Amino acid sequence: MAAEARPAPPDRPWVMVNMVASVDGASFGPNGRSAPLSSETDRRLFHALRGAADVVLAGAGTVRAENYGAPRGDGEVPRLATVSRSLALDPEARFFREPGVPPIVFTTEQALAEGQADPRLAVVAEVRAAGHYELDWSVALQLLHREYGCRVLLVEGGSTLNTQLVTADLVDELRLTLSPLVVGGSSHRVVGPGAPAELRRYQLADVAEDEGFLFLRYLRDRH
To answer: In a 10 Å sphere around its CB, with 0-12 CB exposed, 13-18 middle and 19+ buried, how is residue 221 labelled?
Structure first.
C-alpha cells in the first residue's frame, strides 16, 4: 500500500498525510503520544511510507511530544522538516541531532525579523520564511518543490498542521490507520478546530485489515 503512483502537481509536491486514530476519533493515547494506538503492521507501513517520501514534515508540537528523529534506512532517507511561527525550538533536540542533512524549519518573515530564535538554530537547520505574518503553505510547498526537489511530501501531524493543509485544500492523499481502541477524554482529532467551512471530499482508494486494525487510503476528489 506504500508504492502507489503519486503524480505531483507541476508547482508543488504531492502531499500525503499519515495518521493513526482510535475508533472514537482520538489521534493519541492517554500519554499524549500516538504510539499506544499503533501496531506492528502500522509501524511497518509507517516506515514504508517514509521510504516513499522525499521530505517528512511534522509540526513543532509533534516533534516535541513524539521525540522525533531521522528516518532509518540503508539507502537514501527523506529529509526532515517542521514548522514553527515562534521558532521556540531546542537545537539540542533529537530532531536536529540525528539527520545526515540539516532539517528544514518553515516560519514567517515576522518571526525572523524579531530575532527571538536560539542563534544555534541556524547552525543545525535551514530556516526558511514562507509568508509575512502567517505561514503561507502554497509558498512553503513551492519552495520544497523548486529548491529541494521534493516530489512527495509526507505529513505526520499533528492536528494543527493537518488543519492548515486541509483548509488550504493541499492534501492529495490521506492515510489513516483506524485502531480498535477507545480512548475517551479530550484527545485531539486527526484534523482539529478551524477546518474549512465547506466539506472536503475524499475517495476511498484502498483498504486492508490486520488484527482489527483498518488501513485506509483516501485520495482527494478533485472533480
So the answer is: exposed
Gap between the Cα atoms of 191 and 213, Å rounded: 20
Q: C-alpha cell of 179?
A: 485502531
pTM of this structure: 0.93
Q: Which residues contact 219 (CB under 8 A, 6 or more apart)?
A: 172, 173, 174, 202, 203, 205
**pLDDT tens for each residue of 180-212:** 999 998 888 898 887 777 888 999 999 999 999
Give dist(CA 35, CA 16) in Å, integer: 20
**Number of residues that this document lists for the chain:** 223
Strands 213-220 and 202-210: antiparallel
85: which DSSP letter? S
Task: Report the distance separating Cα 9 and Cα 42, nearest Å.
Answer: 28
Assigned CATH class of 31-195: alpha beta
105 closest CA partner among 84, 91, 88, 86: 84
Which helix (H) or strand (E) segment holds residue 22: the answer is strand 14-22
Is the separation of the CB atoms in 48 and 2 below 8 Å?
Answer: yes
